[in-house]
Amino acid sequence: MMMVMTLMKSMLRPCAVALVFAVSALVSACDSGSTEYAYPEKIGNKVYYPGEQRPDSVFGKEGIDLFGQSKRNADQGGGGSGLGINSFLWRASLDTISFMPIASADPFGGVIITDWYAPPETPDERFKLNVFIMGRALRADALKIAAFRQIKDGSGNWADKAVEPSVVSDLENTVLTRARKMRIAAQTGATPN
Quick one: CATH architecture of 84-188? Predict the structure, then answer.
C-alpha cells in the first residue's frame, strides 16, 4: 500500500504543477485593457447596427459647419465654413461695418445690406453700404462693396450724391486686411487684433 501512496504522490505533484500552469495561462489570457462596446443607433424609424452603412444626411457626409473651422475647408482657404462664401471675408465684413445698422445679412448668398447711417458729426449726410462676397477664396476679387451717400437739402429732402472711389477701395482694403489677420490667427491659434 505504501508503494501505491508514493506512486500517487509522485504523480500528483506534476499534475498539480500542470494545473497551476493551466490556470495561470487561462487567467493571463484575459485582457484587462479597455473594452469598447458598440451599440445599435436609432435614426428616425430605422435601427443601424455597428458597421452597418448609414445614409448621408441632407447636408452631405460631413454635415454643415456654420462658422466652424473644418480642416478640409480651411486648407482650401475657405475659412472653414459650410457656406459657399469665404467665412473670413464674411466675419471681417461684419466687423468692419459693425458701427452701421444691418438691414439684411445673408450668409449663404454672401450679401450684407446696411440701413442708412448718419454720423453724429454730420447729421445732414448719411451713408448706406451693400457688401457682396463672391466665392470661397480669400482674394480681392471675391469682395465688392457698393457705397451710397445722400445729403439733406434745405427743404429737408435727401438727395443722392456721389461717393469718392477712394472710400470704397479703402473699405474693401480694410475688410481684406481684417480677413487675412483672421485667417492667420486661425492657422496659428492666436487671436486677431
Answer: 2-Layer Sandwich (3.30)
